[in-house]
Amino acid sequence: MNSIHIGGAPNDFKPGNAYVNPFATIYDIVVPKDNMLRQINELVDFSFILEELKTKYCLDNGRKAVPPVRMFKYLLLKAIFELSDIDVVERSKYDMSFNYFLTMAPEDSLIDPGLLTKFRKLRLQDAGLLDMLIGKAVEIALEKEIIKSSTIIVDATHTKARCNQKSPKEFLQALIEKSQEAGMEIDIVIGDTVYSEKANLQYAKKETFQLASRLNPQITQGGRVKEDEFEFNKDAGKYVCKAGHMAIRKARTGKKNQGKNHRQKYYVDIEKCKVCPIREGCYQEGAKSKTYSVTIKSNEHTEQEAFQNSEEFKKLARERYKIEAKNSELKHRHGYEKASSAGLFGMEIQGVTAIFAVNLMRIITILKEKE
After folding, report:
1. Is the dihedral of CA 126, 340, 86, 75 positive or negative?
2. Which end of the chain is more exposed for a tag (fewer CB within 10 A), N or C?
3. Maximum C-alpha span of the chain
4. Within 13 Å and on the Cβ side, how many CA atoms surround 175?
5. Boundaries of every domain in the chain
6. Residues with Cβ < 8 Å from 75, sequence gap 6 or more?
7. Which of 151, 210, 221 is nearest to 184 (CA)?
8. Which runs of E-coded beta strand occur in 163-280?
């Protein structure tokens, strides 16, 4: 692979150098002040992209390169308008707002669309793009005094990707830490049921934030429907079946130090089950025993169950719709429903640029509302 310098003369695109577009007067006429791309350009100093990618280029050797900031802006345009590599380059031929955003002269020659693939694979690999763009969006929001809440909502969504299928994973601790590194102060985290696992509850308690995540029904009520549940006799400390027969003994099951809740197993007199008038669906013919098991809640689960029954929790849970709406926007307006390139890395680049674009547009909308 040839080494290349960043473009023009080696010093033309050094971090911190202001770039003055010689066609600014023309663009002032044809690209109105309320144009979204103009507003994004005025909102964001994109020199941070060059700062992050400068080690990926050689400053004094090889062919001239298309400026990295311009290449990144192509990816943003793809995300904002849901365009392919070929289409975004083609549109920059005739759309003056694209020319303005890309700091191109109207008569500049177009790039080969294949350069966008090389840029993604050779320049953005290992660049920590997700953390960088989340941090930048939060930085802008804090600077504009938009972020005033200490509550964050976490969620996952499915996309169709061209890659080997992997088991889904839910991350909470890493998301919290990344948000804090970006400048967020966090008092409350809202998430769906998958985030209420015991380790996350322990982490929330340690870091002193509230986790508004509903416990899995297997923890709170077991895997039974309401009509199949036995009644608990507090005086005897045992369960009573639907026919009124009390358990004759109980035993605790489960291994220690496996991070899972133990279960209490109650044994019913099998001889009574054999002649019970309502045994159908409850007793299996030929069975040698009949048991009824319940989960023994940990302290964390007991505390979380009490919290989720409170009015405060119910109020917080009603805020979750906001993240669902944002996921829908990403999928149906910015192409995040389906991967536009092969591989997990390509999907990651597509996702982070779409999220960054949506964040910028949201910031612009809020700023307009504040005027």
Report:
1. negative
2. C
3. 94
4. 16
5. 4-127
6. 116, 119, 120, 349, 353
7. 151
8. 188-190, 210-212, 231-233, 238-240, 249-253, 263-268
317-324 long-range contacts, Cβ below 8 Å, gap at least 24?
Answer: 317/190, 317/212, 317/214, 319/151, 319/153, 319/190, 320/153, 320/155, 320/190, 320/191, 320/192, 322/153, 323/153, 323/154, 323/155, 323/190, 324/155
Give the model confidence (pLDDT) of 238-250 as tens digits: 889 989 999 999 8
- Strands 160-162, 151-153: pairing kind: unpaired
Residues making up the chain, counted from first to last: 371
341 pLDDT more than 80: no
Decide if 270 contacts 289 (C-beta within 8 A).
yes
Query: What is the C-alpha to C-alpha distance for residues 216 and 304, in angstroms, rounded to an integer?
Result: 11
* Residue 229: how many other CB atoms lie within 10 Å: 14
Q: Is the pLDDT of residue 138 over 70?
A: yes
Work out the end-to-end distance of the chain between its first and last CA atoms, rounded to an integer number of angstroms: 50
Strand duo 338-342 + 290-295: pairing: unpaired
> CA–CA separation, 172 vs 169, rounded Å?
10
Helix (H) or strand (E) holding 341: strand 338-342
Q: Give the closest residue to 319 by CA, choosing from 171, 190, 186.
A: 190
Q: For residues 41 and 100, is the Cβ–Cβ distance under 8 A?
A: yes
Spatial contact of 178 and 134, defined as CB atoms under 8 Å apart: yes
Cα–Cα distance, 310 to 63 (Å, whole number): 65
- 246-258 as b/e, with b when 16 or more CB fall inside 10 Å? bbeebeeeeeeee
Pick from 64, 54, 74, 162: which is nearest to 116 by CA? 74
Q: How far apart are CA 352 and CA 52, in angstroms?
A: 15
Closest CA to 130 of 349, 288, 305, 306: 349
The C-alpha atoms of residue 211 and residue 151 are separated, in whole angstroms, by 10
Residue 11 pLDDT greater than 80, yes or no: no
- DSSP result, 54-80: GGGS-SSSSEE---HHHHHHHHHHHHH
Q: 68 near 50, Cβ under 8 Å?
A: yes
Residue 77 confidence (pLDDT) = 95
- Decide which of 59 and 286 is more confident: 286
